[in-house]
Queue: 2 jobs
Job 1
Amino acid sequence: MPNAMPEKPALEGLESKWGPVWETAGTYAFDRDSATKENIFSIDTPPPTASGSLHIGHVFSYTHMDLAARYQRMTGKKIFYPMGWDDNGLPTERRVQNYYGVRCDPTLPYVEGYVPPLEGGDNASSKAADQQPISRRNFIELCERLTIEDEKQFEDVWRMLGLSVDWKQSYRTIGDHAQSVAQRMFLRNLERGEAYQADAPTLWDITFRTAVAQAELEDKEQPAAYHRLAFHHEDGSDIHIETTRPELLAACVALVAHPDDERYQHLFGTNVTTPLFGVEVPVLAHHLAQKDKGSGIAMICTFGDVTDVIWWRELDLPNRTIIGADGRIIADAPAAIETDAAKAAYAELAGKTVFSAKAKVVELLKASGEMIGDAKPIVHQVKFFEKGDKPLEIISTRQWYISNGARNPDLREKLVTAGKAINFVPDHMRVRYENWVGGLTGDWLISRQRFFGVPIPVWYHLDADGEKGAVIAASEDRLPVDPSSDTPGGFDESQRGVPGGFVGELDIMDTWATSSLTPQIAGGWHSDPELFDLVFPYSLRSQGQDIIRTWLFSTVLRAELEHGQVPWKNAGISGFIVDPDRKKMSKSKGNVVTPAAMLETHGSDAVRYWAASSRLGTDAAFDPQNPKQMKIGRRLAIKVLNAAKFVYSFPEPSVSTGVTEALDLDMLAELHRVVGVATKALDEFDHAKALEVSEHFFWVFCDDYLELVKERAYGASTPEGQASAVTALRTAIDVLLRLFAPFIPFATEEVWSWTHDDSVHTAAWPVVPAGATEPSGLLPLVSEALIGIRRAKTDAKASQKTEAVSATIAGPALLQHGIEDLKAVGRIAEVTFVEAESVAVSDIVLAEQPEA
């Protein structure tokens, strides 16, 4: 039954009132039994990283996704709208370390009932030296415990925001189901040759001691200095190079200059020896050398930066890596360093950090006279892991990769074609995807030397000497597996680590290797083929623009490799949230606003209104000290409550003659036009336009139309006139509630409940009636005349309730149909109408007012 209309409608408390009702009633539950390929709308929801707190950017982009879900539900679509939690990977590990004051040491035994030194201490223990080492299993248990707590808090925020997800359709990227999907997909990649191992230069974070993929890089400006060094040519002359990394001199394998650089063309094909170490290296040409950088000729080291890697690979150079996984100079000098003096110089570097090694090399070069002048300070871009705080190094390691088109032109072209098959909203975001595909320089490195993640499902045969041999892949029927504790088929635990036995892979998958499979995880790929066939390819992927290169690209890649098709039809890309200075808000910049307090202060409908006011792809400024858009949204939601209550207060008509008056008919015709525009906008994922046109009409409806017809609605007219006004008003409110339902779901549900026994969110989206006529233009004419009447009374310093003896109203002939309502609202006894091109109110004579 409909709810009783409150005496004083209010926004406060609506979230806690309606959230449980929707959950109990299954308002947003996926109706699988009625779903078909034709009527389903499936959403590939971004699983937020469950390691800390949500920020305002999450609220912004997730609201955009929810607007599409709510609209499509009201059009009759069966909505598949799950929620996932991305709870594995480095962010979780770092949070657990800081929160509990622990760090993982895989060599330690498991401790039953382990109690960490800290409980609930965010950032209380950020230094490794202060953290208690614990076993891998104990560490993973703490990761599990904390992510579950975080996920509960995240869910509370999402529920308060009014996300219309089906909470029964949820998953965790560390859960058994997600692990099975990720491992199965890897095994398929391995079987087809798309997944492989290779010894290669690897971007390495020395803090986390793990490999980092190209998509996880971030450039940061760092102070540095150019050091001018003298290399010795075989003809007796010196060649000067400038480098910011003299500590890598022992790893030098060549000098390189641009092939068109006339200063060095005569040197190509000859040899020089390195300062300090006396190693002979060739002088080569390559187009990536920059004539205007330093002296124009550079040393190639293994490896100082990603350009070194390209040169090393394309010029077929030897590998003389000297930096270890701990970021220090390794003990053993490269074989090319042969003389006693050179070995002694290297010995002074061994074991040092790159910072200390740089200082020592500079000291030695100055002593040998091979450093020319003083170092020249500069500031330049250096690559960091996006979650790290120290510059990345490049070391040689054996890692797992998945082919991504960087070295396969056919696959690259397929991925570009896939991008063209997806409807990007806005369309220009496709360029970012295409630029990323076109700029790939290496295959996707997916292995990580960490602990909390999906294990790579392989083992290795050990030969008679205990050395690793052939890969043993897990069988799909055993998934998920953890090779560090599970045994491969045909072996038992006693054979682990012994010659002739096996050893398990200890690396885990990069978190994107799991997140890239959200369509398969949520849709039941392999475990529920019927469901997967229903939802895939999905209708919508909604996400931020900053993860096009990671989440969007990797999902397209996995779908192409496994299914040969795109994972979704549409990709809605939200913009950034920027602060009042137009700087992007992010945790790393320290200017993030958390949403819980914001939702409490302004109300969920107001926050949703703020998010909905920005088109996809457009950055939105937010000033927490002056949230103008939220205040406007709150005002709108309150007005919806009060306007609806006012409309429902008019007496029931005594006749059932429907809408007959010209002004009422024109108002409804204009509303039908608004419905058409809003529907087209939402079909095109332009929620901001749909909100704008609906809101504009609503304020005209409240400020003008409602005022114009209220006297008639109260009965100050014929029964037919009263019936026309009341019917039109109620019809309009009914339509407006449905137009606003995706944007302000709590206020609209509250009002809807006063006259309906179902939910507005499962009600049919309004449609333009067959045979609907275009607006005649009467309503804007009458509104303009009403403004004139109000202005005349204001100018006379009279109340709007002051009666008038007479007035003259001029305007087009059509305006005559609104004269009676103008007389009533203006309290004008007699109106003289004069036909004219434009509207004007004149000669208004106010009635004599009694003396106070």
Job 2
Amino acid sequence: MALPLQAPGLVAGVDEAGRGPLAGPVVAAAVILDPRRRIRGIKDSKQLEAEEREALAIRIRSTALSWSVAWADVEEIDCHNILQATHLAMRRALLGLHIHPGHVQIDGNLCCSFIDLPMKCSYEAIVDGDALKTCIGAASILAKVTRDRMMVELDALYPEYGFASHKGYSTPQHYKALKKHGPTPIHRRSFEPVRLAFERKLSLADMPAMLPDEPVATVADAGQRSLIESCAVER
């Protein structure tokens, strides 16, 4: 297997999408933009409309020197906590780059989890980096677009929850479905609203022994699809 190219003068941006939702994975992206090919319109993905993000994602993937998208799934979030799972996804994204940069800029205020990576580069955490650094903004767009697509696909498995619209975030629609149907396998049980819903589901499951005529709602189990994308364009 070929080793990644070393590019001391290049900067990689790293960002995530999906730290706050009650369901679904947390997704991270790493991007090394080509300094010779400027992409207009890149900024924090949250400041863009979905159509703008999709269009920019196509341009980023086609013109970046290297890009990689990875994620941590619900089981890893519940096992490690959301912060550590986010860093795990970011590490995987960095390791997926075809080119090793000389410097890495990470959105946030922590980068200690990246020091032991087998990459000869420096690391810098930047608060609000997705709005301040183009490479981080590009990473935020790829992470957001990828995660949104994953949640749309999961909506087909659990159509009663509305994942295609709210992407797993805490909306009235999501809370209502969670209360009515209980949590699914893709819900984060380490998050308080999901934990309480799961406890309610367990309580309802015990009720038939005492109240034979009381119906109990059940949730169909389904597998979780995962996806890792990585691509590199050598110049």
